[in-house]
Design a protein that fits this description.
It is a single chain. This protein has about 550 residues and is an alpha/beta fold. Helix 9 packs antiparallel against helix 10, helix 11 packs antiparallel against helix 12 and helix 14 packs antiparallel against helix 15. The longest helix is centred in the middle third of the chain and has 17 residues. The two termini are about 20 Å apart.
Length: about 550
């Protein structure tokens, strides 16, 4: 077995836009701190959607594109809720679904329409409070957050949860390039390399440049405003996660007082969130974590020294020179795969304790270390690479369309710029490197509310991790200043991206997370200051691990030694 060669797909296929870890990972038998089962995590840092069938997509034509009707939508129309496919593949009598026509564009004279799909989970003791979950990406549908809908309604029986598929994703009218996403193409269901220009040309032919502007965050936020009005629940809450926070901010610009409260988890500040720089963010936060958290721990410092980031830099130089040939026959592949895997481990709080030991094992490169790394890849990441089913409900064209117009630098970076930045990193998944190249054919549409800051009249709650590589804390100064004055801001130590799932408590590692506990308190009383006592319980990295954790990750009793 050649683990690093097998791992090399991480540097390309694990590129995510705002990447949401999604469903909480399962702990190992000895859950202290617990080893996540990463086999369900997708190629894009998103939960795996490959098992999601596209056969249930509404009103799909034979070529896989959505029919576009001409309508005169009326927000007062009743929503026709019908029984549907439950939660996480399991039947659930509380669940109903609906498809509602929406204008393609509200800001111009355009009578074209698209379908918008939404799933509803009604609490068994529904009391008028509802939670609208806005998923990340951009490009992600609502299905990766079904775990959150299930858990929230189990812990709060009065709550009803709504899971909309953002326009352009999932079972809404999905933005797709059927020719380039066909199974027999170079990337299968993934759009790769030279497939992007014809993909974009097909989108322009179908919708026109003006129509592609209808798949903006502005229009997606207007959908939420309209849906909440149509449903009529007396106390609606809106929660955005990762890119979903960008969308929630757009929502507040349009409806500052509609919601009973708005929650931001892992904030992408709309005034400072250019995803074309995500490679640098991940590297900066990863270095910071190594040199502050690892170097501050006696065991980790003993193994990797006072500046572990410098040790990783030297490791990359050694790999490039041919170090550990039994691990990877191609030095370039070894460096790229190691860089991507370190970033993926950094993204998941439960994998972070093993990250320095992973570096240590590659530096030593004994046969037992090679076996341990192979065990980690098979047991934690499921062994590799992506099946023919592809991304399922996720839409890569939508992700690029929004990112290029709304989450980009000005002037835009070239692929050479992105490559140069990437080569300076020791820990990143290559998001910017890949997406900058993919975005070249796309013409950015004007973003109607760009540069504006919402002034919410509803209570707000901000949850953010101390070391979040996908949406770094050091970018949020203005956001926290603006929202902290009138709302609640909770910074959670030892958590990672998506605090509601990645903040396990020492007192109950497999129970509701600290982030979930704070969320439920806010939903019960959004005016009250949140009880943040649980933040002191969030599990800190244990660099010695535990028998169950070490066995799950490396198949060894000791995290570091053979």
């Amino acid at each position: 077995m050649n683990p690093i060669r097998t791992l090399s797909w991480l540097t390309v296929a694990l590129a995510a836009l705002g990447c949401d870890p999604g469903e909480p990972a399962q702990d190992a038998a000895d859950a202290s701190p617990g080893a996540p089962d990463m086999a369900s995590e997708s190629r894009d840092g998103m939960p795996d959607m490959a098992s999601e069938s596209l056969d249930n997509m509404p009103d799909m034509t034979s070529d896989g594109t959505s029919d576009m009707a001409v309508i005169d939508p009326d927000p007062a129309d009743a929503i026709d809720w019908q029984p549907c496919d439950g939660l996480m593949g399991q039947p659930d009598p509380r669940v109903t679904c609906a498809v509602r026509p929406m204008p393609l564009r509200r800001d111009v004279a355009d009578d074209r329409a698209i379908d918008l799909f939404v799933k509803r989970v009604v609490g068994v003791e529904a009391d008028g409070r509802s939670l609208w979950l806005l998923a990340g990406g951009p490009g992600q549908a609502g299905d990766p957050l079904e775990w959150l809908a299930s858990l929230a309604t189990a812990l709060d029986a009065g709550l009803t949860v709504y899971l909309p598929d953002h326009r352009g994703t999932g079972r809404s009218s999905r933005l797709t390039c059927p020719v380039q996403e066909a199974p027999d193409t170079a990337g299968g269901a993934y759009i790769v390399g030279d497939e992007w220009p014809p993909c974009y040309a097909a989108l322009v032919e179908q919708y026109g440049l003006d129509g592609l502007a209808g798949f903006s965050s502005h229009e997606a936020a207007a959908d939420i405003v309209e849906l909440i009005d149509a449903v009529g629940d007396p106390r609606p809450f809106v929660m955005g996660i990762s890119y979903g926070t960008f969308l929630a901010h757009q929502y507040l610009l349009l409806a500052p007082d509609q919601a009973a409260g708005v929650i931001f988890d892992s904030v992408c500040d709309p005034l400072d969130c250019p995803l074309s720089r995500q490679d640098e963010w991940e590297d900066r936060v990863g270095r910071q974590w190594l040199d502050e958290v690892c170097a501050g721990d006696p065991l980790c410092a003993e193994k990797l020294g006072e500046q572990p980031s410098a040790v990783v830099e030297q490791l990359f130089a050694d790999l490039a020179a041919g170090h550990c040939p039994d691990l990877a026959g191609d030095p370039v592949m070894a460096v790229e795969a190691t860089r991507g895997l370190l970033a993926q481990m950094m993204l998941f709080a439960q994998l972070r304790p093993a990250l320095p030991a992973f570096v240590h094992r590659i530096r030593r490169c004994d046969p037992a270390d090679i076996a341990a790394i192979g065990h980690m890849f098979q047991n934690i990441f499921g062994g590799g690479g992506g099946g023919a089913a592809g991304p399922g409900s996720y839409s890569f064209p939508l992700a690029i369309n929004i990112a290029r117009a709304e989450l980009w630098e000005d002037p835009p970076p070239t692929p050479a710029d992105a490559e140069a930045r990437y080569q300076q990193t020791i820990m990143c998944r290559g998001v910017s490197r890949q997406v900058v190249s993919q975005a070249e054919p796309f013409v950015p549409y004007p973003a109607p509310l760009a540069g504006q800051r919402a002034a919410p009249q509803s209570p707000t709650l901000v949850l953010h991790a101390e070391y979040d590589p996908a949406t770094p804390l050091d970018l949020l100064g203005r956001f926290l200043e603006d929202f902290g004055a009138a709302g609640h801001v909770v910074l959670v130590p030892h958590a990672s991206h998506t605090v509601v799932s990645q903040s396990p408590k020492a007192s109950a590692p497999q129970g509701p997370s600290c982030g979930m506990e704070i969320l439920l308190g806010f939903l019960a009383d959004p005016q009250a200051a949140p009880d943040t006592a649980c933040t002191a319980e969030v599990i800190a990295p244990d660099f010695a691990g535990s028998p169950g954790y070490n066995q799950a990750v490396f198949g060894a009793a000791d995290l570091w030694e053979n």
